């Protein structure tokens, strides 16, 4: 099984690569080659930073978005988006203006609004992951979060898990062979490694 970990200059690649290998991945290819992604058996899109910067970096790689669409949307390859990699699944993001996402899961990435001034933004640290639906990959537990923007999902059926930070925020989304997590599995110790291990074995 070949797993393509997409290198577009916007992810914590070393930590994600290490976590995938600890979770049992044997053939991880860190790549910016669209052809490798198009032929991969599984794909992971990490992401750290602003939505716009990540989107622009991904789109700047010749053929990459087309390769992702071909593999995931047409071939049904299992796909995992992490943090901003999850947010890029949305129709659009509102960080530094409104910018188009991949449009795989309907919704908009918006800034976390604080009704209570005691609530800090960014949402940073360990927090509960609460399942919104039965999932073959997710379990209730605690994971590590670091984000100022959240995925406002259009269809509640696409929400796989939530967390609470002055109100519910989406912790994970899922549709078909696509799953995305707002938390960082590579920083979530045993919980994160267990999640990645299930992704590696997932046969949707």
Describe the structure.
With 204 residues, the protein is an alpha/beta fold. It contains six helices and 13 strands. It has helices at residues 13-22, 34-39, 51-59, 64-74, 84-87, 189-201, and strands at 2-6, 27-31, 42-45, 79-82, 92-93, 99-100, 107-111, 123-131, 141-147, 149-153, 159-164, 168-175, 178-181. A nine-stranded mixed β-sheet has the order 2-1-3-4-13-12-11-8-9. Strands 6-5-7-10 form a four-stranded mixed β-sheet, covered by helices on one side. The two termini are 15 Å apart.
Key words describing this protein structure:
204 residues; 13 strands; alpha/beta; 6 helices; four-stranded mixed beta sheet; nine-stranded mixed beta sheet
Short précis:
Helices cover 26% and strands 32% of the residues. It has 204 residues and is an alpha/beta fold.
Report helical residue fraction.
Answer: 25-40%
Strand order of the largest sheet: 2-1-3-4-13-12-11-8-9
Q: Count every beta strand, where a strand is a DSSP E run of 2 or more residues.
A: 13
Q: The biggest beta sheet, please? A: 9 strands, mixed
Task: Determine the number of helices (DSSP H or I, runs of at least 4 residues).
Answer: 6
Our estimate of the beta-strand percent is: 25-35%
* SSE run: EHEHEHHEHEEEEEEEEEH
Quaternary structure classification: single chain
**Structural class per helix/strand content?**
alpha/beta
Mean pLDDT: 95
